[in-house]
């Protein structure tokens, strides 16, 4: 079943993906319009599909301006920036790009854990500012053999667990429900998990259901010798509580790839040597981004040519 209509591109995307869109489908970049609101009021009925990034999504007012919209395609695994329930109530299908970024996100999570526990980035800064001749670098924390908790044992969480197995760590996890067939200990709440581990790696999906899942109570349970790694979404952590815990010395350190108000990072964190700050780069490798672009295009093309999506969101 061929679906007639143009494609609305809501934000800049990967160059190779944009090239494929232009080559195969009539695509309009909303950001190119001098007055996007006026443009949608005049032309919204022309669009059958929208493509966007996980960070931008499709705002409600844009969705409402597209009466013939049949599919929303996200470049990225996240889709909490789009009101999926609202879309489905209108019969709009929604897709994302799962699986293809699992390895890179898991790699970065493990790298962040090693960095913050061993102080690698801090040690690099120590050398670069010429401090080594006058002072040795403080002792760090061993990674191998530690108790590591994973919050969210989905695709990415399990990939993180697989990598950490090689370090001889004691793995435990919390998810909405126990996961069949895994050998790791299950805890029935984030607080219970945090109280029993040396480091907590956060790998849950974003959205309202996980907002501030890592609460002040979870951070208190993790304690002054505990470490936090977040490669999910900034909204999953109570960010003011995290900042306070780090500034007050009630948490040993954190590796953060995501923040509540990106690209803005809480200023108190900038001066802390025990915090690794990354600009949301967990999936930012050439290989993974190209795979994400290819899958996003496949979703869009399949919808417009067959009326279905390859990877609809659950």
Automatic annotation (TrEMBL):
<dbReference type="InterPro" id="IPR006139">
    <property type="entry name" value="D-isomer_2_OHA_DH_cat_dom"/>
</dbReference>
<dbReference type="InterPro" id="IPR036291">
    <property type="entry name" value="NAD(P)-bd_dom_sf"/>
</dbReference>
<dbReference type="Pfam" id="PF02826">
    <property type="entry name" value="2-Hacid_dh_C"/>
</dbReference>
<keyword id="KW-0520">NAD</keyword>
<dbReference type="InterPro" id="IPR006140">
    <property type="entry name" value="D-isomer_DH_NAD-bd"/>
</dbReference>
<keyword id="KW-0560">Oxidoreductase</keyword>
<comment type="similarity">
    <text>Belongs to the D-isomer specific 2-hydroxyacid dehydrogenase family.</text>
</comment>
<protein>
    <submittedName>
        <fullName>Lactate dehydrogenase-like 2-hydroxyacid dehydrogenase</fullName>
    </submittedName>
</protein>
<feature type="domain" description="D-isomer specific 2-hydroxyacid dehydrogenase catalytic">
    <location>
        <begin position="18"/>
        <end position="313"/>
    </location>
</feature>
<dbReference type="InterPro" id="IPR050223">
    <property type="entry name" value="D-isomer_2-hydroxyacid_DH"/>
</dbReference>
<feature type="domain" description="D-isomer specific 2-hydroxyacid dehydrogenase NAD-binding">
    <location>
        <begin position="112"/>
        <end position="282"/>
    </location>
</feature>
<dbReference type="Pfam" id="PF00389">
    <property type="entry name" value="2-Hacid_dh"/>
</dbReference>
